[in-house]
Amino acid sequence: MPKGQRRLDYTPIHSEPVCPICGRPSRLRATVCGGPPIQQLCQECRRRSLVKGRLSVQFCVGGCCTRAGAREALEALLAGLKAEDALERVSVVPVDCMDLCDDGPVCRLLPDRRTYRRVSPSWAERLGKDLAHDRRARK
């Protein structure tokens, strides 16, 4: 991989886990439903994602959703946002099981609290591009 380019997948490049958004050192957290560990956001990205009213996507990367293709769909969502240069304006938070395992991969849009089920990578990429043009993402 070329120097300076950030990797968007959740496989650590080094032995130390990194934030999926900015690439800074982070932590791993075990999932409750048997999936691979979740790479958590670094403190700065987490603080930005918690701003009230901020457009945010919670993406389930628990065991069942991961087996259904959630990590690939999450990568596509991040790629769609990156293509529109919107990673700074829309928060993407990988979360553990949302208890909708039969309908995975699942993501939830906040502050709307709208849940999307059976999210495919192509649909997730389109969602990322659409969210980049949402008026709430321009703040």
Helix and strand topology:
Blueprint: E1 28-29, E2 38-39, H1 43-49, E3 56-60, H2 63-67, H3 70-83, E4 91-95, E5 107-110, E6 114-116, H4 121-132
Parallel strand pairs: 3-4
Antiparallel strand pairs: 1-2, 3-5, 5-6
Key structural traits:
6 strands; 139 residues; Glutaredoxin; 15% strand; 4-stranded mixed beta sheet; alpha+beta; two-stranded antiparallel ribbon
Describe the 3D structure.
- This protein is α+β, with helices and mostly antiparallel strands.
- The chain has a domain at 53-138: Glutaredoxin, CATH 3.40.30.10.
- It is 27% helix and 15% strand.
- The strands form 2 sheets. A 4-stranded mixed β-sheet has the order 4-3-5-6. Strands 1-2 form a two-stranded antiparallel ribbon.
- A hairpin with an 8-residue loop joins strand 1 and strand 2.
- The longest helix is centred in the middle third of the chain and has 14 residues, at 70-83.
- It is globular.
Strand order of the largest sheet: 4-3-5-6
In the CATH hierarchy, what is the class of the domain at 53-138?
Alpha Beta
* Rg measurement, Å: 14 Å
Distance between the termini: 32 Å
Outline of this structure?
The protein has a domain of 86 residues: Glutaredoxin (3-Layer(aba) Sandwich).
